[in-house]
């Protein structure tokens, strides 16, 4: 039977930590190849398999030459093929990077190199990314981006597309101005609101020179305006609008015009619903159009000397009928104008600590009309007494029902009371005629109608 030679063996990982003796040969069971050791190199030297070798190809692989010609007549062509990935060619391309060329590549960590695994961006695009910690998926967004490294470094974590990122190309804000965003507390989702923005570089540059703090910039959190809104804000600034005036917009939660429309105008506002105010002072006239005006106050003070009631467009006694003042209590205490009686009616007693007057004077006194010569009574004498020094005539159709006049003889002799009225009955005997009033006598005339009167008194005959 043939002899069996079995060498020591192990995986690639195990070989990497193994240092064999000089001339020792082991088997890498992962690569299915032999590994030669020199006693000092950890991991040894793996031998290439025939399938992985780089081999010259027959010239028949070239369409323009014949393999039957002698070598001296063949072209100086060579064709090399290998089954390994073109890693060397990729590294050669990366050697032209601006960030330190091949020396910079040598300094890359394995973690940094793995970020580029699968990236489809070009060398020029990768040169922008020196020091960027984004993932391969994030880096692939940058394919075709023409912005500078400084501009792109702002975008770590942004999910916008290449076309959208290119909007930043040419932004002229300074580093100090861009740094204002440091500390902004908007979330990634909120920042992604920029996804799809069509603003140009010129429009973005509107913010150039803004000195707001992070807290102030956060006021834009949730802003739903468009490009035209930003341009309008720029135009406002150009007209001299100050930062303090812009701050008036702080807290606006809907369309400004909609909010303004809901506010009352300063001149001639039309208020609806219930309006509440504290310590309200009006500098002009107050007009209330409604069914009931309610004043809930302990004391109502009015500087005006006159209060008008019933001031309708065309006031009449009929429109005034029933008007007045009502004091609420266990029962209503009223002062009411009654048109049918042409009078003010009080439903409670009236008491006065002073004098009470009517058109005839103090109602607690009988007013005097002193007449030394012959005298004819007039309507104003109703409720008066005549201190007569001569003849007194009683006229017809002057006085009304209920009027009364007293005549006092203020002489040492008799005086005559002349009857010009149709009928003037003597209460003593019922006759109607002129009467004589003796010295110091007193007689009262009561009018039953404009043409009928009754007379009675002391010293009357």
Describe the structure.
The protein is of the alpha/beta class. Among the domains are: 44 residues, Seminal Fluid Protein  PDC-109 (Domain B), CATH 2.10.10; 137 residues, no CATH class; 35 residues, no CATH class; 98 residues, Jelly Rolls. It is 18% helix and 18% strand. Strands 12, 13, 14, 15, 16, 17, 18, 19 and 20 form a 9-stranded mixed β-sheet that branches. The protein has a 4-stranded mixed β-sheet with strand order 1-2-3-4. Strands 7-8-9 form a 3-stranded antiparallel β-sheet, with no helix packed on it. The termini are far apart. The relative contact order is 0.03.
Features of the shown structure:
461 residues; alpha/beta; 4-stranded mixed β-sheet; 18% helix
In terms of topology, how is this protein built?
Elements: E1 9-10, H1 12-16, E2 25-28, E3 33-36, E4 45-46, E5 55-56, E6 80-81, H2 87-94, H3 101-106, H4 110-115, H5 123-126, H6 136-140, H7 149-152, H8 162-165, H9 175-178, H10 188-191, H11 201-204, H12 214-217, H13 227-238, H14 243-246, H15 256-261, H16 317-320, E7 324-327, E8 333-338, E9 343-346, E10 357-358, E11 361-362, E12 368-371, E13 375-376, E14 385-388, E15 392-394, E16 404-409, E17 415-419, E18 423-426, E19 435-447, E20 452-460
Parallel strand pairs: 1-2, 12-14, 13-15, 14-16, 15-17, 18-20
Antiparallel strand pairs: 2-3, 3-4, 5-6, 7-8, 8-9, 10-11, 16-19, 17-19, 19-20
In summary, what is this structure?
Among the domains are: about 10-50, Seminal Fluid Protein  PDC-109 (Domain B), CATH 2.10.10.30; about 115-250, no CATH class; about 315-350, no CATH class; about 365-460, Jelly Rolls. It is built from 16 helices and 20 strands. The protein has helices at about 10-15, 85-95, 100-105, 110-115, 125, 135-140, 150, 160-165, 175-180, 190, 200-205, 215, 225-240, 245, 255-260, 315-320; strands spanning about 10, 25-30, 35, 45, 55, 80, 325, 335-340, 345, 355-360, 360, 370, 375, 385-390, 390-395, 405-410, 415-420, 425, 435-445, 450-460.
